[in-house]
Amino acid sequence: MSAVQTEVLLQTLISGLLLGGLYALIGIGMTIIMGVMKIINLAHGELMMVGMYIAYVLFAAFNIDPYLSIAVAAPALFLLGIALQKYLINPVMKVDSILPENQVILTVGIGMVLANLATIIFQSDYRQTPVSYGTKAWYLRDLWKDSPVDLSLSMPWSVSFAFAVAITGGLWFFLTKTDMGKSIRATAQDNDAALLMGVNVGKMRVFTFGLGSALVGAAGCLLIPIYYIYPDIGGQFTLISFVITILGGLGSTVGAIIGGLVLGLFESLTATYIGMGWAPVGRFVIFVAVLIFIPGGVASLLKSRKFGK
Amino acid sequence: MKKYLPLVILALLAVLPVIGLSSYVMHILILVVMWSVIGMAWNLLSGYCGQVSFGHAAFFGVGAYTAGILYLKLGISGWWGLPLSLVASVVFALAIGFICLRLRGPYFALATLAMGVILRITAENLTGFTGGDLGIMLRERSWIGKTNYYYIILSLAAVSYWLVKIVTESKLGYYFVAIREDQDAAESLGIDTTLYKTIALVLSAMLTGLAGAFYMNYMGYIDPKVVFALHDISIVAIMVVMVGGVATFWGPTVGSLIMVLLAELIRNVPRLGTAHQTLFGILLIVIIIFLPNGIVGDFGKIKRLFVREAARS
Question: ipTM of this predicted complex?
Fold first, then answer.
């Protein structure tokens, strides 16, 4: 490999890793909802879109940095998630019908309404938050003069990545060390057993939906300095987070992190070596391959390694 | 009397063009009938067999592109796409079924959704074969008037209705319902669930593919964003059946009538046009919460509601 080729490969891997960190955060939100409620939230990307628009409005109106608007967007999405769960999803779970997939179809309906309302309010223009540090980057040659390859690290990407890692770490702490987190994990493992142990399962469900929405809202704020928004952006990210959850193993948080990183790397490689337009196809090639070869996702691999055969 | 009801309705529909309807009304009628075909196809797989598909646009698009590519590449009439789309959609259904049918419930739904998106992106990127984002346009239409198109789609609808009726009233239909109600129990009773789910998927794909091929010939223009659309095809297919009634004979037809008329109505109201997805979404939410089995399925419930109101007043 010549120096240029190595440079391209390394640069691709770096951007894939940074992208993967954000994907992981988006995927975790979906996977904890899936784990606790056993339903797939097809409005997940649309909730992220709402978070992004909150960051956009705060930036456009008050010039608030998108990273700071996490403090507004995450609680707002938390409340929105709780309201959706309480007033729309819970009633449907009680209704008797032929198709049990009604809840999934319901979330599609919610997503449609959110995306369309955004179109009405903001028009379908592409919008950005042009932050001052948007194009700043660090170069390897600045630090190490004689480096054989020159690599760059975009500043907003790295900051977003750092935030994503911090939020994921906080979530890990919350889920493993606090009472509430333990109750959520118990509900995910076995609904009835958790109920018998005195966990308020109904409350946990509502809270989990809020938590998942807050996480994806935060992810939206992290994404907006490096991306652009338009009202229909959500569908794409719903699919991404679904692919991540399948890749990681349904309901597995660790799996979602690994899945997000793998997907980020793979997409970045497809974009560099095959073509930008094919990156989404690469995403789904992974998806199909996982379904055929490791239907349990990364989580099942981890498990079989841990406990032997 | 009830036995002949479908024939009576078919006969009534067949004489409709004779009374001289305007071209716009004919267009709406054609759309209603076309959507009822797609609805019946979706109902067969998802309503009766319980495998909810979010990706029927995949089969619709495959049918449409079969007709379009025949015209574009071989220069023969797009109508050859009708028979050939059957072959193409069976091939795709088998491939998609091989991948997706190992999943259950909501996971199957999402896998089919992903399939629809994969096909859309592939069609967008294979510019040499499908024309990419430019799409395919028929330079000459078969007929100026709409009457012939109407009779073609009406006969397709009659065939679909007949097929769904035959299938659901045979042993096959009982297998489907058994799989929907409890897949493990069906398996333990000796039903080869994978085989029958594949049969349901193939039948459903064939009907959807036919509708797609018809759409190409009727509209004269397709592009990946139109025929592989998630919200405008896959979700509308679901809504048609959800509104009309899941696992009922007339549900898809009633649903397509309501959905197409509603879409036209909303489009005609100024300033409301952009909000049509909001209204559809709200309609979907309301239907799922209050009439989970659709208008036909919960007809008793609606009737009781009105009777009680009448008794009270």
Answer: 0.79
